[in-house]
Structure formats: structure tokens, C-alpha cells
């Protein structure tokens, strides 16, 4: 009986490529979720100090907010 070896490198590259796309899509989704959460906290805060404290407690990053161009 002979053993045929299949080159797993192309399969591994395809899998890495798909995972890269998935990670990029997830990063975009998480960024959008962070942006919405920051806006919600800011809208419910009584002043900038309270907003900063709440954002810090929730682990949200107000500096991450991006400007949309479309």
C-alpha cells in the first residue's frame, strides 16, 4: 500500500486567508459597536467628567471613533 502525501500548504494558506478576512470583518464590527456605545454613554452623561469616567469603567475608547466618508 502506498501513501500519497497531499501538499497541505495550499489548504493552510486558504484557511489563513479566510481567517484573516473574518478577523478584519470582526474588527470593523467591534469598532462600529464601540462607536455606538461611546455615543450612547455620551448622550446619557451629565458632563464630560462623568462621560470620561463611565467610558473608562466600561472599557470603551472614545479616541477610536472614526469619521465616516460616505
Strand content: under 5%
What Rg is obtained from the alpha carbons, in whole angstroms? 21 Å
Number of strands: 0
Note the overall shape.
rod-shaped
This entry's quaternary arrangement is: single chain
Q: Give helix % range.
A: 55-70%
Uncertain runs with pLDDT below 50, 5 residues or more?
Answer: none
Task: Give average pLDDT, whole number.
Answer: 85
> How many H/I helical runs?
2
* SS-based class: mainly alpha
Task: Give the SSE string.
Answer: HH
Distance between the termini: 61 Å
Sketch the major β-sheet: none
Structure summarized in a few sentences:
With 70 residues, this protein is mainly alpha-helical.
What's the helix and strand layout?
Elements: H1 9-44, H2 48-58
Helix pairs in contact: 1-2
Overview of the structural elements:
- The longest helix has 36 residues, at 9-44.
- This protein has helices at 9-44, 48-58.
- It is built from two helices and no strands.
- By secondary structure, it is an all-alpha fold.
- Helix 1 runs antiparallel to helix 2.
- The N and C termini lie far apart (61 Å).
Amino acid at each position: 500500500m502506498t501513501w500519497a502525501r497531499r501538499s497541505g500548504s495550499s489548504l493552510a494558506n486558504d484557511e489563513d486567508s479566510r481567517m484573516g478576512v473574518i478577523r478584519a470583518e470582526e474588527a470593523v464590527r467591534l469598532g462600529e459597536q464601540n462607536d455606538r456605545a461611546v455615543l450612547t454613554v455620551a448622550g446619557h452623561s451629565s458632563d464630560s467628567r462623568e462621560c470620561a469616567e463611565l467610558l473608562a469603567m466600561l472599557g470603551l475608547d472614545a479616541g477610536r471613533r472614526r469619521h465616516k466618508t460616505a
